[in-house]
Structure formats: structure tokens, C-alpha cells
Amino acid sequence: MEKLIRFDWAIKKLLRDKANFSVLEGFLSAVLNEDVTVVNLLESESNQEDSFDKFNRVDMLVENSKKDLLLIEVQVKSEYDFFHRIAYGVAKLMTEYLEKGQPYREIKKIISVSITYFSLGIGTDYLYYGSTNFVGVHTNDILALTEKQQELFGISDVRKIFPEHYLIRVEDFPDKVQSALDEWIYMLKHSEVKPDFRANHIQEASAKLRIMNLDEPQRKAYDEYMQNVSYQQSMLWSSREEGRDEGKHEEKIAIARSLLAHGIAFEIIAASTGLSGEELASLQEQYNNREVSK
Fold this sequence. Notes:
Radius of gyration: 26 Å
Helix content: 40-55%
Number of domains: 2
Order of helices and strands: HHEEEHEEHEHHHHH
Largest sheet: 6 strands, mixed
Number of helices: 9
């Protein structure tokens, strides 16, 4: 099966072309479980690349036929404050697209779709949804709009006023395809579309995103991009392994200190922990100095 261009690079370089909007429409329709028509691409942070973000993330701001703003973000490298950043991103959009003097009812509806290639938070699913509801503290009921508000705003739920978030944890997808959305997530994870996939526009995406379609300069740029992605992933894996090794070593030192305090012979401690004679001698000296200073 022919490999496709990875989705983050496609967003950065190919899907900004109006001729390729159908790929975005198919993907977003599957995520939101409703028909999405892309009307326009708006200014977003991805238009100003810096050295840190060049290979780490990409985002795209889409306006649909309902005038909603859909922020698509793909993130490669893990960040502890990623949740904070997506909160900041939607808050910034809400203020940027409300002109001074406009009534608050003109605030744009914002939908954030985050595609992460790292383990985001702790959870067992590969797709998470978040919205804002007001729940009764004592009655547990959900605060609703009045009929007049529903008529004025054209919505039925309070949560439809507030930003909505979709978080896709690509690496946690178990490769079990059961829906149109699963077909798209499979493509995100493996850069492949199986011949029997039937999600709207996904076979069109397969045709448009083939690596072989790239010209020579694009192919070179894509190869360089993927090499940097591989490097970033290798560095992340190495740092995790170093952290594990360091943690194991600290655990051995703690055990050795306890055994030294009980007068256990060096030979037994060395055999139990794997620490060298020099390390044990240094620990013994530290222990003796502490005892003298008491």
C-alpha cells in the first residue's frame, strides 16, 4: 500500500489550496459527525513559523458555512502545558474575531480539533470531547436556554455558545476501524488509506496526498521534514530512557545507603545493587561524615 504524506505536513503545504478543501471537509465532517463545508482559511499562528515550531506543530484556522471557526492543530512533541495552550488559543480567537462595540451575541463559535502524536494526559480512549455545561450543584440538572434565547441565537444548548474541544491521541488508536472517523484516524497514524475505506472524501484524500505526486523540491522538503520528525521522536525516547535509568540508579543508591547504615558488608551491597566499590566507598564516607556532624 502506497504511503501518503503525513497530515501535519499536508496541512502546512497542500491543504491550504482550495482545490484540496474536500480533504479537510471529509476529515472535519467525520470528527464533528455533521456535514462541514469549508468556506475560507483565515489567519492563524501557522503563518508565522519559528525555529522551535517548524517541525513540532502546525495549525490551520477554517471558517465553515455556518461562520464557525474551526482551529485544527497538529502537535508532534509533548508539552506539559498543552492543555493551557489550547485554552489560550481559543480565548485569543474569541477576542480577535469580536470587533469593538459588537454585542456579545456576535462572538464566534469556536471548535478546536487537536491532533497529538504524543501521549496527552492519562486516559484510555483515543478521542476526547470537551464542552462547557452548567450543572446544578444540588439538583444535577443542566442549565438550559429559554425559548426566547433559543430563538435569538439559533441554538438549543448553552454549551453551543462556548468553545468545544476534540482531542485526538493518534498513538493511542488501537487500529480497530469501526467508523468513518476511525478510518481517518487510521490514516493519521499510518499515512495509509485502505482500499475498502468508505468515509466521505477519504479515497480522494488518498489520491491527493500520495508522496509520488510531489515534485522534486516538494519531495526533498518533505524528506527533510520527516527526518526532523524522526529525530525529535528519537530524542524524546532517549530522554525517557535516560530518565528511567537515572531513576533506577537513584533507587539503588537509596538501598545501598540503608544497607550501609545497618553495617552490611560492601561485597553483599555490591552484589545486591550492582554499584561499584568506588560508589559504595563514597556513600560510606558521606554516611560517616553525617554521623560525625551529629
